[in-house]
Amino acid sequence: MRRAFGVDGESEVQALLMELFTLPADSLPPSAARLIAGLAELLRRVEDTYEQNERDLSLRNRSLVLSSDELNRVNERLRDEAHAQAQAIETLRGTVNELLAASDMPIIDEGAAGLDKLSALISNLVHERSDIQLELEQQKFALDQHAIVSIADRAGTILYANDKFLAVSGFSREQLLGQNHRIVKSGAHPPEFFREMWRTIASGEVWHGEVCNRRRDGQLYWVDATIVPILDERGKPRQYIGIRTDITERKQMEAALRESEQRLQIALDAGSIGLWTWNLQTDQATFSSQWMGMLGYPPDAFPHTGQSWANLLCPDDRDSVQAALNSHLEGRTPTYEVEFRLLHRDGTWRWIMASGRLIERDGDGKPLRMAGTHKDITDRKSVEAQLRIALDNAEAANRAKSDFLATMSHEIRTPMNGIIGMTGLLMDTHLTKEQRHFADTVRMSAESLLGIINDILDFSKMEAGRLEFEDGPFEITPLIEGVVDILGPRTKGKDIDFSYFIPTEAHGVFSGDAGRLRQVLMNLAGNAVKFTEKGAVTITVGARHVSDDTTWLDVSVADSGVGIPEAAQGKLFAKFTQADSSTARKFGGSGLGLAISKTIVDMMGGEIGFTSKVGHGSTFWFKVPLRCISRVQPAQAPDNPLAGLHVLVVDDNETNREIFFRQLHSWGAVAAMADSATSGLMAIRSASLSGSPFHVALIDHHMPGMSGLDLAAVLRADPALAELRLILASSGNPGEFAEAGKRLGLSAVYSKPLRQSALLDCLMEITGKRPEQPVPVHSGPATDTATGMALRILVAEDNSVNQQVAVGLLAKLGHRADVADDGREALNLVQTCDYDLVLMDMQMPNMDGLAATAAIRALPGDKSAIPIIAMTANAMQGDREICINGGMNDYVSKPIDRRRLSEVLDRWTERVLGRRKNSCQPDSVASAEPHAAAAEPDIIDKDAQEGLIDALDRDVFIGLLTSFTRSMPTRLREMESALSDADMDQLKRTAHSLKGAAANLGLPRLAECFSHIEQAGMSGDHPAADCWFEKALGVAETTLAALSSEFGT
User: Which CATH superfamily is domain 646-766 in?
Assistant: First the structure.
């Protein structure tokens, strides 16, 4: 640039530029001015460019110098690296060739492979080695999980032990390594065992065996061991690898199996049990030595086949054995079990009990093999035969005992009927206090004796399995109240409140054995009264309707008596057992009541139990299922019959108050309670002042402080309480309060326990709530008949005392009675007089009750339909059936209880009314009773004869029958002679005797003939007697032939 402008230096350039810039602007053209203005910038830029080029040139020069040096150094380094790489490749090739040779692969020649190929080969080999290593590790893991592994040197020193070895032996790895294998030696093997092992492995061979070792804690364990020698290059062992499996559990099972087999063998030997197997298709069998020995044969005495066994089988047992075998093979029974006889070597028959099972079938499902046992039961069979003989003898003895009990029952009950009946009649007369005490003691003693007799008879029935149960309709309330009526007098002289409660849900008609329920309740409540001197006895009834026709009756009897010791509670329901021996001495009793009660309840499908605490009393309970016929309450006890009635109960006994409250509430009454006469008085006055007075006050007489009569006197002295009705309840005789009751204006005086039905009757009566046409609530036996109608009754009884008892009881019940001394007289009276009903004793001279009944049933017209009620002192099984089957309508047992007799008479009153109405009609038709128009009776009454055989024993019955048949020709000749002589009296007596005997022996057609002859003799009708005698001859011949065929008489 300086050369272009002709200047030498920078300063000249600057001076030149200054001159240009100082030129006047207006002296220059505009374009020249602009050029001069930009010239300085142009020169600066040119100068900068030159300077940059000079710098770049300088840098290039320096770079060329440096690059030349660096290139020399790099070349030197590359020559060194190339030489090193060549050496590395050669070394790598050698390594690869070694690996290839180890893997039996061809090696790489020198220069044949570059680095890439060698790298690829190495990568593949590494991967293969890794896979092999992984597989080895997995195999080692699997081996460690199952096997016990150790490595030992030639001396047996442990060099390696896996985790399984540690776990099984109980040692840690530190405790094992460096130790000899003797550390786990158990001492269970002899020295020769280990010497043989060392000889084997020292020779380089593998050893296998089972070894017993010992854990660190001393316990033994078994291993199945394999020891493998690791050989050196000379073929000598340098190490030993031991691989073991824990077989301790298997060894223990084997030991247990051996022990079990030994025990089985001992049991088979001791129990004389033989084993057998049988191939059903080849008939091949195996019989154990015990099997052969029990029959006396050596093991090889005969071929072991099914046929050999069949040859020993008793012919009489073949069918039963074949049936049992077929049943099992066809799958009808799970096992083959049968008893049969096999022939012993000594010629005797041995009883065998065989048990077996099919254990294999062939491919077609056909039976192939069976196995089982034989046991010799000959001795057992002998004992069973002896037991059968003993049982037959025992049953014969039991029948004799039953006959004896029946006879004794009759003989005892007959005088007992007189004692109890006469005592009852006596106590209804005017007696002094001392006389009444004596009479009451006699009555209670007689009833106690009767209770013991009944218990013994029931026990006899229980033992014989003949305890009978009836199924008939009944109501709960009369049943409970009947028991209360019977037991109530026993509380006299004791400070006991005897009460009961029957809820509304227990009303209705049920079906079951009311007599047995009454018996159970009598036992439980009787014991409660017996063992309670002071306090309360309460009967509570519940009913649970579980379905439309099934109801569970729940009854409990709670007392505050002596209680039962805990030690005696477990045996309380046992026979002849009482809680304390002193109990029997103090209170008496047979100890059978609870045992009989439990049997009855169990047989009715129920439950019975108790809770008790000494000094606090006991609660006995039972529950039985009953069939519910109707839940509808009786018409005489409608729902809420006392609705709106306000009643105050004044009683110091909490239980009585609670029961009265519940009962009054169930009747719809508004009830309040007071626990003393004073509080009762306050309650009555307070209610009167409040405008809601009580209508009735039910007051207990015996209360501390102010008595019931005292309270009644105070109330009657208050004019404001004149409308209050007062009822007095007392544990004493109500007659004692009669005068005071009239004086104080008492509405009623009742003796405790107070009947609920009687209380309801009384409350409805005194408050005017009774319907216009009242139907009395059934409250058990009354003092008159249920209808108030006096019946005319014939009593057929040969015992004079029993006659007086029956007549007296009937008179007390409002009936008129005539007496017949025997059945014949009863028959005559029925024919000649009009009776509403007959009470017929079963056993009478001349003609017994059954014969008399049969004769009455044979009468023409309505006479044959008269109700006949049996009276018998027999109490054994079948008595009732004999009576009913003999034509009687009902049954009462002796001693006759007034309540029971009243109940029976009440049942038949409606029938009697019907008969009376029919008899008043001029053209009355014959009764529809079966006996009124009975068809000609059978030659032999088998049912009657079976009943007699049961009662008398077959031999006794046949003896009676033989005596009768042998005397028949003589007696018939007597009748024929009487007819020839027109001796009608003799004819009548002979016919009567034969009629009774024939009827008793179950010969009804013959008895009918003799009955007609007797009637003809009584009426003097000779032609009729002749006619019937001719018929009797033919019937007698037919009868004797039938008896000869049936009994051989």
Answer: Response regulator (3.40.50.2300)
